[in-house]
Specification:
Layout: E1 4-8, H1 16-24, E2 34-39, H2 41-50, E3 57-60, E4 72-76, H3 89-108, E5 114-117, H4 122-125, H5 132-139, E6 147-151, E7 156-159, H6 175-193, E8 199-202, H7 216-230, E9 235-239, H8 241-244, E10 253-256, H9 259-270, E11 275-279, E12 285-288, H10 305-316
Parallel strand pairs: 1-2, 1-5, 2-4, 3-4, 5-12, 7-10, 8-9, 8-10
Antiparallel strand pairs: 6-11, 11-12
Helix pairs in contact: 6-7
Length: 319
């Protein structure tokens, strides 16, 4: 079946059901992609009812049914619950991890071309500093060889370090890490988009610390860029981060040294039009680029655009 994509319903204590229902109502925007949900059928049905979202859903236990367009199909994952928006943490963890296992197995067996996960509370589910990116990379034995790309067709960004404290950023940078991340990103663009990306690497310090000998720019970032150029990768930098987003039109992706260095300005520019893509995994994983929305659960204020963009992403890529 061509372009079949799974959507993991994600954290039960979230805005995910609202996002899914709103996205389904706009399914004309992703006509060439067939989607189905991985989640608990009864939970999703009750959440839809409480939110007064009139969506026809049907439970399935296999992917043999070909009617993926007319009804929202739910591949059922067991979950014990009483209140559909308040779930015991132990049950939640098992439920979310089981949902990921199912999606990964479908991906590896080529039953789907990839999956989208709706947001999860990483503290409840992973009980560590890991986000979904690091969790999936570790599960696939590629931890530190993956790259978190926040993607929009106009411009993308990637942080070299992800979910770590600012005080630990400098000591977690190395020539090898920068080199390997950029190689992964370059390969991802070549494989999935069939073109060689124009990449720009940002410095770590204000004004690149004037490229002084004791700066990370001089000791780590410049040597990594020189090594990447020798490999034939189209890369420039380092450039100061404070002006990078003003002069971005000639690049496909900006590589920053830490999470908020690139994600802060990027989200200001693209808001809900950005998505999270993990490069370097043996399968394709995408997610909306936002959190669980705890403060707006049941308020019917959730914006589904990032989930819609996540689904539409599968129309763009080579599979």
């Amino acid at each position: 079946m061509k372009k079949l994509v799974a959507i993991i319903a994600g954290d039960p204590e979230s805005i995910s059901s609202e996002l899914i229902a709103k996205a389904w109502k706009k399914k004309n925007q992703f006509k060439n992609v067939n989607i189905f949900l991985i989640g608990n059928y009864n939970l999703i049905k009750k959440q839809f009812k409480l939110l007064d979202l009139k969506i026809n859903i049907r439970k399935i236990n296999s992917l043999r049914n070909k009617d993926f367009k007319k009804t929202l199909l739910v591949y059922d994952v067991p979950l014990d619950f009483i209140n559909p928006f308040k779930i015991n943490k132990n049950y939640k963890k098992k439920y979310v991890l089981k949902s990921f296992d199912i999606a990964i197995n479908f991906s590896k067996s080529k039953k789907i071309i990839g999956f989208i996960n709706c947001p999860v509370n990483k503290k409840d589910v992973f009980q560590s500093n890991f986000g979904v990116t690091e969790f999936l990379a570790k599960k696939s034995n590629v931890l530190n060889k993956e790259a978190m790309i926040i993607y929009n067709k106009r411009l993308s960004v990637c942080p070299i370090t992800t979910h770590i404290k600012i005080k630990n950023v400098s000591k977690n940078l190395s020539i090898k890490k920068i080199y390997e991340k950029v190689v992964v990103i370059n390969k991802f663009y070549l494989d999935k988009f069939r073109f060689k990306p124009r990449i720009c690497v940002l410095g770590l310090n204000p004004h690149n610390y004037e490229l002084f000998d004791d700066s990370e720019e001089k000791k780590i970032i410049l040597p990594a860029i020189k090594k990447l150029k020798k490999k034939g990768i189209n890369v420039e930098g380092p450039i100061p981060a404070d002006t990078a987003f003003l002069n971005n039109k000639k690049f496909n992706i900006l590589i920053g040294m830490y999470h908020d260095q690139v994600l802060g300005p990027y989200k200001t520019m693209f808001n809900f039009s950005a998505i999270n893509v993990t490069a370097g995994l043996p399968y394709l994983r995408v997610s909306p680029d936002h959190g669980t929305g705890l403060d707006i659960i049941k308020k019917k204020l959730a914006n589904p655009q990032s989930l819609i963009e996540s689904i539409k992403f599968f129309k763009q890529i080579n599979v």
